[in-house]
Design brief:
The structure is a single chain. The chain is an all-alpha fold and 181 residues long. 67% of the residues lie in helices and 0% in strands. It is built from 8 helices and no strands. Helix 4 packs antiparallel against helix 8. It starts with a helix and ends in a 14-residue tail after the last helix. The mean pLDDT is 96.
């Protein structure tokens, strides 16, 4: 491949995605508020008093997908829940195996999580952050060990999924999920 041909690929070519109507924005807003409020409330009320959490940053990105991009393959239940759990397992494994070299553990966690999500057909972009947090999340996250992929990660994703199923189907114009498996 010539350099000019290679560089020309970077200019793109497709048009910008279409805008969304106010109704779509409002349904996404409602879903995200409800889903994140439930996670935050349960975390503050039940998990944090026990030195646990139910809220990690990647769940915010998952809320964007589950309520704002409901037709995306990344938003479907298998991907939403499976991507977080697979990535959490990879991240904890990388921390336990390579935690003495944090830069190596972090790079491997994200990279191997990406490959694992591809192989298991659970690609969910926030999963990369889930794997990374298993390594760089600090003593509280590290203390969770192999609980981390399930609580907060899997349980938080399941809560967002439950709310997505309820809210995303209230409108006649929205249907979620597109598929389960």
């Amino acid at each position: 491949m010539k350099i000019r041909e290679y560089l020309s690929k970077m200019k793109g070519g497709a048009k910008s995605p279409p805008g969304v109507g106010l109704g779509e924005v409002l349904w996404a807003l409602i879903g995200a508020v409800i889903g994140m409020c439930i996670c935050e409330y349960l975390s503050a009320r039940y998990f944090e008093p026990k030195e646990l959490t139910l809220v990690i940053g990647p769940l915010g990105a998952s809320a964007v997908l589950a309520y704002g991009a409901i037709r995306s393959p990344f938003s479907q239940p298998r991907n939403l829940v499976g991507g977080h759990i697979v990535s959490g397992l990879v991240g904890v494994s990388c921390h336990q195996l390579f935690g003495g070299t944090p830069w190596m553990a972090a790079a491997l966690a994200v990279s191997v999580a990406l490959a694992a999500m591809m192989v298991t057909k659970t690609m969910h972009p926030p999963g990369g952050a889930t794997a990374l947090i298993a390594v760089i999340g600090g003593p509280k996250v590290h203390a969770l060990g192999f609980l981390y992929p399930f609580v907060p990660t899997g349980l938080g994703a399941l809560i967002l999924l439950a709310v997505a199923l309820l809210v995303n189907n209230l409108s006649r114009n929205r249907r979620y999920p597109q598929y389960w498996f």
